Every structure is written in C-alpha cells, then in structure tokens.
Task: inverse folding
C-alpha cells in the first residue's frame, strides 16, 4: 500500500504531485539499487552508497584532493546507455501496469484489463496503458490484407485500405473511451475497497487521428431509408454493433492513430471506429465492415450485454451515451494520509455530452460544496483534470466530487442512480463516488 | 411610361437578371468543382456484388441475410455435444462459460437469470452470434447447416421449438422469444 507523503507547506504542490511512496522509502530503495549498479560497474559498493548519501563529509573530502565526482550519484560518473529505436518507460516505474483480469479470462483473451488511473497524471493515457476489452483476443491483422468496406443502402459500395485512408485529410481529436461497464461495482450493495484503477479504470483518453466517417459515407452516397450502420470488427468474435446513422454523420471517425502513433493492436490496429462520448463497446475495433441499413439488428452485444435492466423487468436498449461523471483519484483507497497538513484533492471528470463546465467538491459528505479548478484544456468528450488544495486537520472527512457538463447535466447521487435500475444492474454507472477519511488518515470507499 | 419604353425596360431587366444568374451559377460550379477536388479524394475501391456477398454476414431480426441451408434439433444435439458442451455444459447449463438455457420468466424477478433464451429478444441473434463467434477457440468453423442445427437444439431445450423442428431462413425468424417485448429502444435519447 502506498501513502501520500505529508509535504512541507512551502513545497506542497511539488511533493504531492508525485503520488507514490514516502520519500524516505524511495530513498532507501534507490540507494540499494544504486549500490548494486555500482558493484556491477566495477566500482566500490561502499563508496557508491556513501556518495549517494551526499553527506557533509563527502563535500568536505572533495576539498581534500579527492575526485570531483566523489559526491555525485553513480549515473553521473559513467556514460548512460545508448539510443533505443523505440523507448520504454523507466524500469523504476515497472509497477505502473494495466490491471489484468483474473487468470482464467486472461488466458482466453476474453474480458478486460484496466488503466491504473491512480498511477497516472494529466489526461492522456499512454497507449500501452489504455484499458482493453476483448471478446476473443487481440487479432494480428496484416494491414496489406485488411480492408474497410462500406455497403448496404449506399449508391456505390466502397473498400478502403489503411494506405488509402492515409491519403485522406486526417483530423486529430482528444476523446475519452469508457466501457459501459466501467464503475459497475458501484451497483453492488457493498462498496468495493479498491484503488481508482480497479473501480473506474475501464476509462482512457487519447488523441485519435483519422478520417471523418461522414466523408467516406458521402463518397459512397446514402440511399433512401438509410438509418443505422452495422459495424463489424475483424477479430475472432467478428464483434458487431448497430450504430445510429446520425452519429456516423456527426463526429464519428475512422481512427488510424492514437497519441501520434499507429493504433495499438489492443485498440484496433489497423483501424477502429471512434464514436466520441458513446459507450466503449460500440467503438468497434479492427473495423472491417460498415453495413448501412434501415434498422438495428439486436446483435449479441446490444442484447445480452450493454442493455440496462429496469426495476419492472424491461431493459433499455441502444443507450449509448456515457453521461457526466467524475471521480477523485487523489487521495483514494491505498493512499492513506500521513498526519495533518496540506493535501491536494484531484481527479478526473468527463461527459459524453460535451465539455465539463464545473466540478464541485465536498469534504463533509455532501453538506457543503466548493468549486474545484479545472486544468486546461477543457475539451468536449475528453477527460478533464480537477484540483483543489486542502488542509486536513486529522478529523474524519468524506470527500465527494460532482461534475456538471455544458449541457447542464449533473452527476446524480449514487442512491438516485441505483433507484433507476434493477438491483445490481452494472452498466452506465455515473453516480457520485465518496472516499471516507478516518481520523488516522485511512481512506475507504463508502456509499453516502 | 410608353409601351415600347416599358418593353425595353423589361427586356433589359430580364437580360440583367439572366446574366446575373448565369454568372452566379458559373461561380458556384467553379467553387464546387474546386471543393470536390480538395475535399473528396474519392479513393475508395468500388466493390462488386460478389465481393460483398462473400463478406456480408449481417442478419436482421426479420430474417434478412439468413443463408440457405437448414438444421434439425437432432443434428444440433450432435453438434452441441461435440463442439459446445465442454464450455457450456449439458443442455446449456453448468458452465464453465455462459449459461445458454433456462431462466425464462426470471427477468422481472429479484434474481434475473439472463440467458439467450430468457433474455435475448430475437432468435436470429443466436444464429448470428454462433455463426460469427463460436466455438470460441475455432470460430467460423461450423457450416451454415450446423449453425441452424445447434440454434434449433438450444431453442428446443426450453421447448421454444418442438423436438422435431428444422430451422432455416424462413422458420428461424418466426420463433417467438419469451422476452421479445422486453426491450425499450433508448435511441434517440429522451430530451431532458
């Protein structure tokens, strides 16, 4: 379990921005590793750890004719490693990984892995940490043998390779993708004690670059009666969904790039459908076919899954929008507060309907609310980071965040959200989440 | 104003109007052809009906797109035992993967058991999903006859089709699913 280090007031921002481990802990571990490195490089292990300490004695010795590097850390006294064709994160950060599904599901490539939200900053998800949802593994698609075909109620059926699409005008937009099942655990009667990634990590945000779908549909030419588009992937589940034509003619995109590089295989290489603000599943990955049609088809993933059961036994179908939502990422479960003083409350807010217009925070369980600062840029259908400085006086507190979007939609309470649906219905949870802070600084997920 | 003067005036007015219309039409054409060149690359490869037939596996709830072929409950029981039972259990129950049968009448209860037969609104969805995605380890390995047959077998377990049923493109869409009226179309979303 990691902890937020209580920071000195004059350096509060810097210190708390690095949510990780207490500094003395990092220092000790770094020392051990530094020592090991130094031994490996043929230097004196004793000398290396002594110099890494950087004590006053070291400084004193420098003046007595020792090498000028005596007080320098080992990585300043030997050349670093050479160039790499494709860089990877620092090995010091090897704990920052997706949360993989339970072993049986992982072995079959069916299920989901989650983005470790509590270990990331800003709003852009590194491609390798974007959450995954696969229905039968990640296909290894040869782009030279993959075409997107558009057919059905069109005047001229057309096929497009990735290479062809690269010749089209490309646009880049920052959008979140969130699984409809994200935060589904909040539909359960007892709050799950887990970090934000486990609770809300079927959520990622990327800069997507591709071709507007309306451009391609315009070239194919729509026929009378065209109302829906059946999208199909080239994975081993041939995953398929019915998409309303209005969305296809609005901001829908055939995405080819993610954060500047070709979309990763896990996110749909060589191309995916991107429907900003709509539930993740309908953003069909490995897109190979768009069949323009008159009505939706009741595909398995819009009947069996991703339908919302109501208390009367009826189910909502074709509910696509990911509604206004927020979650406090810091502090959160696993980041217990270490004594009174300055802490920054921060987290993420998003809405499939547009921009976030405000995020209100409460530290008293919803009795009073304060506006959080929104970190620019605040973009539509994208993650927005919010912040609020906070002095904690070692008294029990209950942190809540409530987001409002530019259309005036307000995040509901959990109780109001749960009341809409049949018991345990997990999809499209967007209710308010709460962290209880005990007097000893322990953080727990609570329902208020 | 004399008649001849008025005629001359009308003549001039009509001429001016016509000239203006022609000028604007020419301008618009020039502009739109310029736009067509820049904004419509038109690089898609035209597809032949044959190519589409090979890839189009869409099936609609009213049965459009269902292929030729047919399968009986009896044939389906054999296919199921051989290719489905290891994951879905005898008669579609007992896992380890999703339960396929039973649960009819539970959807509005406190403990809904969602299965393809209790929850899914249309029988064509079972055919479509088996054809595109099953068996999990060897998808798209069945014949259309086998998919019709295994669909018939699954439906027969809860007597949604008789034990001697043979399903094909005509009979499959006519199967009445218990939860066929259980779904409320939420698109477009209601205005608030």
Result:
């Amino acid at each position: 379990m990691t902890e937020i280090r209580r920071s000195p007031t004059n350096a509060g921002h810097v210190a708390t921005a690095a949510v990780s481990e207490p500094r003395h802990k990092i220092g000790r571990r770094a020392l051990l590793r530094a020592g090991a490195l130094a031994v490996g490089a043929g230097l004196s292990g004793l000398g290396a750890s002594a110099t890494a300490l950087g004590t006053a004695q070291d400084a004193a010795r420098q003046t007595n004719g020792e090498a000028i590097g005596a007080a320098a850390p080992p990585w300043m006294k030997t050349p670093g490693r050479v160039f790499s064709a494709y860089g990877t994160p620092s090995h010091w950060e090897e704990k920052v990984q997706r949360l993989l599904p339970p072993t049986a599901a992982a072995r079959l490539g069916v299920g989901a892995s989650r983005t470790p939200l509590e270990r990331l900053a800003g709003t852009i998800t590194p491609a390798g940490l974007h959450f995954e949802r696969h229905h039968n593994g990640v296909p290894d698609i040869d782009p030279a043998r993959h075409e997107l075909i558009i057919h059905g109620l069109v005047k001229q059926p057309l096929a497009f390779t990735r290479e062809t699409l690269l010749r089209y005008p490309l646009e880049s937009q920052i959008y979140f993708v969130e699984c409809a099942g994200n935060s589904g655990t909040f539909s359960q009667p007892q709050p799950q004690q887990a970090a934000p990634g486990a609770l809300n990590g079927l959520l990622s945000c990327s800069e997507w670059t591709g071709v507007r779908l309306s451009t391609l549909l315009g070239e194919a030419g729509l026929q009378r009666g065209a109302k829906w588009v059946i999208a199909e992937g080239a994975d081993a589940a041939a995953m398929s969904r019915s998409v309303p034509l209005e969305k296809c003619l609005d901001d829908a995109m055939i995405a080819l790039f993610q954060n500047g590089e070709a979309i990763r295989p896990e996110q749909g290489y060589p191309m995916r459908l991107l429907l900003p603000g709509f539930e993740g599943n309908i953003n069909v990955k490995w897109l190979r076919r768009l069949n323009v049609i008159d009505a939706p088809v009741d595909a398995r993933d819009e009947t069996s899954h991703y339908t919302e059961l109501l208390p009367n036994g009826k189910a909502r179908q074709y509910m696509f929008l990911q509604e206004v939502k927020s979650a406090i990422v810091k502090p959160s479960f696993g980041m217990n507060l270490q004594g009174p003083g300055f802490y920054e409350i921060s987290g993420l807010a998003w809405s499939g309907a547009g921009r976030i217009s405000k995020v209100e925070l409460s530290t008293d369980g919803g009795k009073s609310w304060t506006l959080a600062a929104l970190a620019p840029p605040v973009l539509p259908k994208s993650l927005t980071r919010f912040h609020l400085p906070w002095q904690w006086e070692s008294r029990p507190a209950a942190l809540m965040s409530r987001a409002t979007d530019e259309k005036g939609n307000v995040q509901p309470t959990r109780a109001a959200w749960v009341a809409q649906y049949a018991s345990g219905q997990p999809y499209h949870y967007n209710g308010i989440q709460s962290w209880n802070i005990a007097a000893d600084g322990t953080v727990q997920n609570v329902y208020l | 104003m004399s008649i001849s003067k008025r005629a001359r005036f009308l003549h001039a007015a009509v001429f001016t109007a016509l000239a203006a219309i022609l000028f604007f039409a020419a301008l618009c054409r020039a502009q739109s052809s310029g736009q067509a060149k820049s904004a419509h690359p038109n690089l898609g490869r035209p597809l032949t009906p044959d190519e589409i037939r090979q890839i189009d596996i869409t099936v609609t709830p009213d049965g459009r797109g269902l292929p030729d072929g047919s399968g009986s409950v009896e044939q389906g029981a054999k296919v199921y035992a051989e290719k489905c039972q290891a994951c879905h259990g005898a008669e579609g129950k007992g896992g380890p993967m999703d339960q396929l049968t039973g649960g009819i009448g539970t959807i509005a209860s406190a403990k809904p058991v969602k299965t393809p037969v209790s929850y899914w609104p249309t029988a064509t969805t079972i055919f479509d999903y088996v054809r595109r995605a099953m068996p999990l380890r060897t998808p798209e390995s069945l014949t259309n006859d086998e998919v019709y047959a295994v669909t018939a077998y699954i439906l027969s377990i809860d007597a949604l089709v008789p034990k001697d049923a043979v399903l094909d493109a005509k009979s499959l869409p006519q199967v009445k699913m218990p939860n066929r009226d259980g779904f409320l179309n939420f698109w477009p979303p209601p205005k608030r």
Remarks:
- Residues 17 and 199 of chain A are 21 Å apart (CA to CA).
